[in-house]
Amino acid sequence: MPSPLRSRDQFAAAAALLGLGAGVLTFAYAESWGWLVALVLFPALVVRACWPAMPGWLLLTWVAVPTIAGEAFRVTQTSYLIVTAALAVVAAARRSRLDTVAIGVTMASPFFPLLFEASDWHRRIGAWLWFGGLLVGLAFGHVVRKQWMLIAELDRTRTRLAEAAVAEDRQRMARDLHDLVGHSFSVVLLHLSGARMILNSSPEAAAEALRDAEAVGRRGMDELRQALMLMHEGSPAPATSEAGDPEQVVAGYRDAGMRIDLVVTGALDGVSAAPRMVLCDVLRETLTNAAKHAPAPEAAVRIEVGLDEVALRVENALGAAPAGSGLGLTGLEHRVGAIDGVFRAGPQAGHWIVEVSLPRRLAAVTS
């Protein structure tokens, strides 16, 4: 059974039922012309349930004025139960200044009969008891209103989290496609450029370069097809074939005609898998950028394996301004930062320098 506190309409409907019950009591214990007071009060909360935009001050005026008259002339005894329910409904809704004033007047209303020929019960404790009852209704409505505000904030937070998850998933897909397609086609272009330059002087070497370009292109298409299939099933894209081996990454670019000076200091075998894969991602991206933007397909790569960290430095001649979107460098910075590494990239003395420092082992897997 749904809680009547879940929505304003359900809460108003529940208050209307309570008001009808209190109205029956008012009829039952009415004296003299008190039944007229009960008749006026009886439909008030029902009208409020059918009219959600009904002003709060109007509802409180509707129920408070007849109640004060009935109590002052001692013809009703339980009509303040209806006022209490109405006060809870008004307190739970958005309020205007006029509503706030009406709430204050209603809270003081149990003491108004004292100005007339009130009963001794009213003079001793009755007014304070009704005041306490109204205070409970006001507090209950305030608590319900706070609960609705929290529910609304929870829904907004849930929506923001869902939007962030979708955006993150799109970024991941863009990064994976960039890695798979961008790097493969960069190597293909290197092979094609080399083949074009030696087509007349060495046809056999040019044909070999074209075959290499075809092989890299087919491998890239297979990886792209596999990645799309896994993304469609909700799984992350697979790693490229050179994942985790920087020397193999460099070899692939060398085979495509790129001149790379590689110096490795220390043993890469002692580096954990995650830092090694991130290092290869950075190396692959920077060599691809060098092939695209440097005046000549040349780069110097230094890898130093220390006791606690692995440092990578890739340097190439600074060419024209990069025409890319910057997605690759941004993605690399995020990946390096994800394992507590440091990423720096920028021009220095006519060269484009990329420097990365990675932990040799992740803190979570060291023993």
TrEMBL record:
Enzyme Commission no: 2.7.13.3
Enzyme class: transferase
Reactions that this protein is recorded to catalyse: ATP + protein L-histidine = ADP + protein N-phospho-L-histidine
Domain Signal transduction histidine kinase subgroup 3 dimerisation and phosphoacceptor: 170-233
Family annotation (SUPFAM superfamilies): ATPase domain of HSP90 chaperone/DNA topoisomerase II/histidine kinase (SSF55874)
Assigned keywords, A-Z: ATP-binding, Kinase, Membrane, Nucleotide-binding, Phosphoprotein, Transferase, Transmembrane, Transmembrane helix, Two-component regulatory system
Name assigned to this protein: histidine kinase
